[in-house]
Design brief:
The structure is a single chain. With 226 residues, the chain is of the alpha/beta class. It folds into two domains: 177 residues, 3-Layer(aba) Sandwich (Aminopeptidase), CATH 3.40.630.30; 30 residues, no CATH class. 25% of the residues lie in helices and 27% in strands. β1 and β2 form a beta hairpin.
Length: 226
């Protein structure tokens, strides 16, 4: 079991800010990226952003209703459980969070890259976009810094024009985002447990009092799980 900590978070006071922290999973730890931005809730929109690829079209979509999101998650190397429609559906059904995704379009109108956020509205912390609540990390599904900058510009536009207090995003790892609007805000710790060893070795590596004893008790009492 390993435990590491890295710093990651910073903010821009008195105005909407992008924030980032960094994280990693297993028993190992790393920070998470956070962003601060507001956005108007939303209907589907398209943005045209200049780039080295002439123009990149950016759209807003509902990741639970648009099957192109699940197709992107299935093939993207940065995708994880936390990007999946099943996880987003769980957040919706459990906490009532609706979601919005910003994505770039490929020539065939399929999604090329994307960012996904939950719309969180609280009387205590205000209205904000979070990527994603109750999730260890949620990487931007991008292949380059230019894709990330284009998507960030669309989110920033909505933040400054909308009624959102800020946007927050957690990244897995310490890669910089190369965007002046984003800065580290908070440090998180991500724990990782190596399960490649045999069961007996894994068990022996657990703490004797806090973990091993409870497992033994569960076995004695016939606890079963599926």
């Amino acid at each position: 079991m390993r435990r590491e900590e890295r710093k990651g978070a910073v903010g821009i006071a008195d105005e909407p800010a992008f924030a980032i922290a960094e994280s990693e999973m297993a028993v190992s730890a790393k920070p998470a990226c956070e962003i601060n931005l507001p956005t108007r809730s939303g209907s589907t929109q398209q943005y045209s952003q200049p780039s080295q690829r002439d123009q990149i079209m950016v759209c807003q979509l509902d990741p639970l209703a648009d099957t192109r999101w699940s197709e992107l998650v299935e093939i993207h190397s940065r995708a994880s459980l936390f990007h999946s429609p099943a996880w987003l559906e769980a957040l919706l059904r459990t906490y009532g969070y609706k979601h919005i995704a910003y994505a770039t379009l490929a020539a065939d109108n399929k999604l090329d890259s994307g960012l996904v956020f939950s719309r969180v509205e609280s009387w205590l912390t205000g209205r904000r976009l979070v990527s994603l609540p109750f999730s260890d990390h949620c990487e931007p599904l991008v292949g380059s810094d230019s894709d990330f900058r284009v998507l960030s510009a669309a989110v920033e536009k909505d933040v400054h024009e909308g009624a959102w207090r800020y946007a927050e995003m957690r990244r897995f790892g310490s890669t910089s985002l190369e965007n002046p609007a984003w800065c580290p805000m908070t440090t998180y710790t991500f724990h990782e447990l190596d399960l490649n060893s045999d069961l007996n070795t894994i068990f022996q590596n657990f703490h004797k009092q806090s973990t091993q004893r409870k497992i033994r008790r569960a076995e004695r009492e016939g606890l079963e799980y599926e």
